[in-house]
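## retry 2 of 3
previous attempt timed out at serialization; input unchanged, resubmitting
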Amino acid sequence: MRTGSEPTKARSALRMRFWLSVWGLVWTIFGTAAFALVGRPGWAAACGVLWLIVTVDMARILRHIRQGPHYQPGRDVPPYRPPEHRHP
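## retry succeeded, writing output
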């Protein structure tokens, strides 16, 4: 429900989140490979799980970037009235 106190031009820092996830992806790939090569399977598995999480997050970020900007009501749009509670 819109109350009228929302920022009219709020934006998410999606491009910054994308580049931070690229940075995380590089480090998790490196960590997985490095720990696997030195014989630390537990740490390699932990980095592999983080690799999966970072990849899913990056896919969600790219999806949001491709969706483009969403409509934000301006100052001339009044807040929505709260729904009336009807008793059965």
